[in-house]
Amino acid sequence: MPFDEIFENGIIKLKNNEYIKIIKIEPINYSLKSNFEKEAILNSFKNFLRICQFDMQIIIKSKKEDLFQHINSIKKNQEKENIKINKIINDYIKNIEKLNSENKSDSKQFYIVIKQTVEKNTENIYIEQINDNINKIRDNLSKCGNKVTSINSKDEIEKILYNYLYLRNEK
To answer: Which pTM value belongs to this model?
Structure first.
């Protein structure tokens, strides 16, 4: 891995004297929003892009989900329901089976990587700058309805970096 150290606060020191921090973004279901809400979300996102004038990268990780277990679970519970509910459940199962067969059952994870280049004798300032940038992201994306989570676990950070750096090259 191209990093020297992962600190307790989740900041990663790279070999090239740069520091990065990974944050996780929990998305909203944009398609379920009203036109008014969609416009407000887009305006908030534009504002986010204007305000965040620092190095960052958005990573989207897609994973094909097999909904077979979910369908079986629903079918097990279906036996307990009345006829009207069973009709709704059958329609729901058909819809899920269709999504599954059309490979439209992806789950997505969103991350933002913030990068800070550290010059000589300024290492004590990088944490403050990265935290300021995280706060800007959190404040602006929360206006869009997203939840922003700081990733501090060394195991989770290594897993994300491995998936991003190595697995994407296998495709």
So the answer is: 0.70
